[in-house]
Automatic annotation (TrEMBL):
<keyword id="KW-0067">ATP-binding</keyword>
<keyword id="KW-0547">Nucleotide-binding</keyword>
<dbReference type="InterPro" id="IPR018181">
    <property type="entry name" value="Heat_shock_70_CS"/>
</dbReference>
<dbReference type="GO" id="GO:0030968">
    <property type="term" value="P:endoplasmic reticulum unfolded protein response"/>
</dbReference>
<dbReference type="InterPro" id="IPR043129">
    <property type="entry name" value="ATPase_NBD"/>
</dbReference>
<comment type="similarity">
    <text>Belongs to the heat shock protein 70 family.</text>
</comment>
<dbReference type="GO" id="GO:0140662">
    <property type="term" value="F:ATP-dependent protein folding chaperone"/>
</dbReference>
<dbReference type="GO" id="GO:0034663">
    <property type="term" value="C:endoplasmic reticulum chaperone complex"/>
</dbReference>
<dbReference type="GO" id="GO:0005524">
    <property type="term" value="F:ATP binding"/>
</dbReference>
<dbReference type="Pfam" id="PF00012">
    <property type="entry name" value="HSP70"/>
</dbReference>
<dbReference type="InterPro" id="IPR013126">
    <property type="entry name" value="Hsp_70_fam"/>
</dbReference>
<dbReference type="GO" id="GO:0005788">
    <property type="term" value="C:endoplasmic reticulum lumen"/>
</dbReference>
<protein>
    <submittedName>
        <fullName>Heat shock protein 70</fullName>
    </submittedName>
</protein>
Length: 557
């Protein structure tokens, strides 16, 4: 806990205090003890010690879920396959259990205030940071303790300290005479008129992202109850609708992970789905309509008004037929005015308008390469950027079957083979989605850590072992995918008439750009270029689309 005052734009820290025995883990332990006792009382067995580490992770998730839901159900078969049953816990019950921790927190607050002789009613602003601030009981405690203060907490209190550190570091870097070839910059808020409506949607192959205009400028919004700003492109029964949208049957590459069957319907395509009502057929456009309609409802709720105009991004390689299908889906979803722009154009808009580029040299016709690795596709575009602020696309290439999911599949295949050869375990159908999800999680972890673990008992509870995997091992497995990406890059460069050493700036877009192996590939390929990558590369396209939307509406305002 830190108490400070601000005078003349300077921060003066009055007091710092901490309690190393009071934090989110204590709330996890409450749930751990509760479920352990309930399992023993209701089902007559003790949770095996070899499952304790996994069980504590469950408790962390439960704590998080109870921050936005009224209850949670824990299935016993996750810990003993021979048992069938569940244990429920409500948010109110959890808060009752946590009363002693809340009392300790309040005592700690008052002790800190007393040390510097300040009353609670003299505090005018409360900044909530840390993952524990997501819990409604903590928010309520702070509001009751400081009723006269303004309370501030974003959707990602866990990230707040890191963001502040990045901003502080960026001011130091700006003052430094030295600059490296890589510029990893954080989005800077751009002052926009909040009266002007602006909506940008990145309708991705595997995930969607939305940016809107707020009082603080263009920003992405939470699309799920948990506050996640990336919404999976699922509609109950669908995945990767964009891969099929506006295509004929013979143009589509079948994915073995799809939970539906493609049916040739004349020159068009339909999806044969299994629902609770039996088999049904849907056009891909119907799937996209349902997704866009859901997103529109979230946007209207977030902006507290009915919006009718939107900018939607599409892959640069989209055909006119595919663009028309996207347009029709948006109209059917309730949008009255729909504008389509390419993802590459949206990305360059975001960087340009938000001043995320390092300064250009005085020469005209600077070359910018956009590397966009999404969940299912890779797009590479080369732009000629002029000093008057205009940009022209002069070359592109892509691979509609190369994306983040292919790197997930590398790990899925690795774990599947290892489970079979070492542990004699065949992954059952019921666990295949879990394995895919876990592989994606490990891929993301290996972007920040050099090692991660896979628990064998997640697939077979009778096996107590851990499979370790390092970032180097993962990168070695991914060599073929990296070579495919490199081929796309050089094809785009050749199409533009430039050579790699003539590219001035490289912009990395899409979640796949977070992987260190991708950053290394770009750095090694473009030795003379300045490399730009925001903290959240998978949100850049939506932000650029919203800026485009803002400028369109500014003319009519």
């Amino acid at each position: 806990m830190c108490i400070f005052k601000v005078e003349n734009n300077k921060i003066h820290i009055l007091h710092n205090s901490a309690d190393s025995n009071l934090g989110g883990s204590q709330y996890d332990n409450l749930l751990f003890d509760y479920f352990q006792k309930q399992v023993k009382a209701e089902f007559g067995f003790d949770i095996s010690k070899m499952l304790w580490s996994r069980f504590i992770f469950y408790c962390k998730d439960i704590k998080h879920v109870l921050s936005f839901r009224e209850s949670y159900r824990l299935y016993i078969e996750d810990f003993d396959a021979t048992k069938d049953g569940h244990i429920d816990i409500t948010c109110k019950h959890f808060e009752k259990m946590a009363e002693i921790l809340l009392d300790k927190t309040q005592d700690f607050i008052y002790e800190t205030l007393n040390k510097i002789g300040i009353e609670a009613n003299q505090i005018f602003t409360i900044l909530q940071t840390g993952g524990g601030c997501r819990m409604p009981m903590i928010k309520l405690l702070l509001r009751q303790t400081f009723p006269k203060a303004k309370h501030y907490s974003n959707d990602y209190p866990l990230d707040t300290v890191a963001v502040g550190a990045v901003r502080y570091a960026s001011t130091i870097i700006k003052q430094s005479p030295e600059s490296s070839g890589t510029n990893d910059v954080k989005d800077k808020g751009v002052s926009e008129d909040p009266k002007i409506d602006a909506v940008g949607i990145d309708l991705g192959t595997t995930r969607c992202c939305v940016a809107v205009n707020r009082t603080t400028g263009i920003e992405t919004i939470g699309l799920e109850n948990e506050g996640n700003r990336l919404l999976p492109s699922y509609v109950g029964y669908d995945e990767s609708h964009e891969k099929i949208l506006g295509k004929e049957f013979n143009e589509i590459k079948i994915d073995e992970n799809w939970t539906f069957t493609l049916i040739s319907y004349g020159t068009k395509v339909k999806l044969q789905l299994t629902t609770y009502e039996g088999e049904t057929l849907k056009y891909p456009e119907e799937i996209s309509t349902a997704l866009l309609k859901h997103i529109k409802e979230i946007i209207n709720q977030f902006q507290t008004k009915e919006l009718s105009e939107v900018v939607i991004t599409v892959p640069t390689a989209f055909s006119d037929k595919q663009k028309k299908s996207t347009y029709v889906a948006a109209i059917l979803a309730g949008w009255k005015t729909v504008h389509l722009i390419s993802e590459a154009v949206a990305a360059i808009l975001a960087y340009s308008i938000q001043h995320l580029f390092p300064p250009f040299s005085s020469k005209d016709n600077s070359a910018i390469l956009i590397f966009d690795l999404g969940g299912g596709t890779l797009d590479v575009s080369v732009f000629k950027y002029k000093t008057d602020g205009t940009a022209e696309i002069i070359g592109r290439s892509g691979d509609p079957n190369l994306g983040g999911r292919d790197f997930d599949s590398i790990l899925v295949n690795y774990f599947t083979k290892l489970l079979q050869s070492v542990y004699k375990v065949t992954v059952p159908e019921s666990k295949k989605y879990f394995l895919l999800s876990k592989s994606q999680e490990i891929k993301e972890t290996l972007s920040t850590l050099i090692e991660d673990s896979f628990f064998v008992d997640d697939i077979d509870v009778t096996k107590d072992d851990v499979i370790k995997i390092t970032r180097k091992e993962f990168e070695h497995m991914s060599v073929d995918l990296l070579n495919r990406a490199k081929e796309v890059i050089f094809k785009a460069i050749n199409n533009s008439g430039f050579t790699a050493d003539k590219i001035d700036k490289v912009i990395q877009v899409g979640g796949g750009s977070r992987m260190p192996m991708m950053k290394s590939l770009m750095m090694e390929t473009f030795l003379n270029a300045e490399h730009c990558c925001v903290t959240n590369p998978d949100e850049v396209v939506a932000v650029g689309a919203a800026h485009y939307s803002f400028n369109l509406n500014l003319k009519n305002f």
